[in-house]
Amino acid sequence: MFDLGKVVGSLAKWERLRGLTAAAKTPSAGAFTTLEGHTLDTNPGNLRMWTYMPSEMADDRALVIVLHGCGQTAAGYNHGAGWSTLAERYGFALLLPEQQRSNNPNGCFNWFEPDDTRRGGGEAASIQAMVEKMVHENGIDPRRVFITGLSAGGAMTSVMLACYPELFAGGAIIAGLPYGAAANVQQAFQSMFQSPSRPAREWGDLIRRAAPHHQGPWPRVSVWHGNADRTVIPPNAREILKQWTDVHGVSLTPSLESVVDGYPREVWLDRAGAELIESYSITHMAHGTPLATGDAEFECGASGPFLLEVGISSSFHIAKFFGLTQAGARATSSIRTEAAVPARLPTNHSADAEPQVLHGEILTDDEERPARERAASPRIDIGAVINKALEAAGLLRR
Q: Pick the catalytic residue: 126, 151, 158, 281?
């Protein structure tokens, strides 16, 4: 049986460890890209609006909306995930909505509150107003607007794709949940830790009811999840895929399977052979955004809490899925490509082996790690705390 009291009771222990971990691993503020703040005439969700414009925009001006996770800021998540690096490299604009503590004590988007997750209301309406402002004031091509987010930001990405499908050409949900997974705190806990299964048609109907007058096309969707995530358990990714394959009218069986940077990728195609949906399952990764840090074409960002160095940059591959990496690339020969090779697994991996948590990434004792990762920071075993923590959902009301 789901024990709400036990989960709530674990928060105090998590908060004590969270301060230590964040202090050890969060980059200094001076390393962050400067974002521009804006005011909104219409802001029913009381969110803050931050933007980043590259030094040179591509001709077909695109916009990516980036939604941070709990306990993060817009600038901090942008720095960690590397989105401004990609924006500068490929010439697209960024919109980074930010939650305020007055709305949610843990700084999480309220993805489970009905008033904030409907078309025309609350936080969803604030984000929609920000998008409209960016498009109108910066000459953005309205056919090239995309959205992505982590955790609560990933769940809010689901909200925006469902409630305003006409605004977005595509979206990417990282460690998130399907639209309509929760309408109150109890359901939010159940969705995060149990992920109750529903028929694909039922999931799809939730989206169709969210935007009843939308006739299509529907946004393309990229789904990312660590298969060792204990905060938002991996079956949530399967439910997201059920939801969007039903909306797009395709089989739940993927059209193609491949391996990218050592991790399995599934793809669903339309009748013309275009990619509608993709899914990455990041082997042995806990809750967070997958990173490949460095200066190569396929690398960006900086590791930190819930920003996990695993050898694949979700931000780069999401931008590629959105069609944003063609213009302005420095050297396409340096970009990693898909290959039909075995997925990366730990050496001598045993199903009975007890995994350990290092920097939020699940690894077995005998798996080798890059030297730069081993020396990055002291080992802090927070896995048992993370899997019970409420910070990833912002569900504690004070």
A: 151
Sequence-distant (6+) residues with CB within 8 A of 259 are 265, 338, 339, 340, 341, 342, 343
The DSSP symbol for 360 reads T
The amino acid sitting at 55 is: S
- The predicted pLDDT at position 134 comes to 97
The distance of Cα 207 from the centroid of its chain, to the nearest Å, equals: 19
Type and span of the H or E element at 269: strand 263-269
- For 42, other C-beta atoms within 10 Å of its C-beta total 12
Give the closest residue to 136 by CA, choosing from 83, 95, 97, 165: 95
Q: What is the DSSP letter of 103?
A: T
Do the Cβ atoms of 263 and 54 come closer than 8 Å? no
Q: Give the span between the Cα atoms of 84 and 61, in whole angstroms.
A: 15
For residue 29, with 0-12 CB atoms within 10 Å meaning exposed, 13-18 middle and 19 or more buried, which class applies? exposed
CA distances for 40 relative to 49, 168, 384, angstroms: 8, 20, 41
Pairing, β 361-363 against β 356-358:
antiparallel
Q: Please tell me whether residue 174 adopts helix, strand or coil conformation.
A: strand
In CATH, the architecture of 4-346+380-386 is: 3-Layer(aba) Sandwich (3.40)
pLDDT of 120 reads: 96
Length of the chain: 398
**Which are the contacts of 274, defined by CB distance < 8 A and separation ≥ 6?**
none
pLDDT tens per residue, range 367-391: 333 333 333 333 333 334 334 444 5
What is the C-alpha separation between 25 and 339, in angstroms, rounded? 33
Burial of 231-241, coded b for 16+ CB within 10 Å and e otherwise, reads bbbbebbbbbb
Determine whether 151 is an active site residue. yes
**Tokens describing residue 142:** 């309205």
Distance CA 344, CA 85 (A): 27
Domain regions of the chain by residue span? 4-346+380-386
Is residue 269 within 8 Å of residue 276, measured between CB atoms? yes
Q: What is the largest CA-CA distance in the chain?
A: 59
Instruction: Assign 284 to helix, strand or coil.
Output: coil
Task: Tell me the mean pLDDT in the region 329-339.
Answer: 40
Cα separations (Å) of 325 from 144, 224, 316, 383?
Answer: 13, 19, 8, 35
Q: pLDDT above 70 covers what percent of the chain?
A: 74
The model's pLDDT over 275-297, given as tens digits with 9 standing for 90+, comes to: 999 999 999 999 999 999 999 99
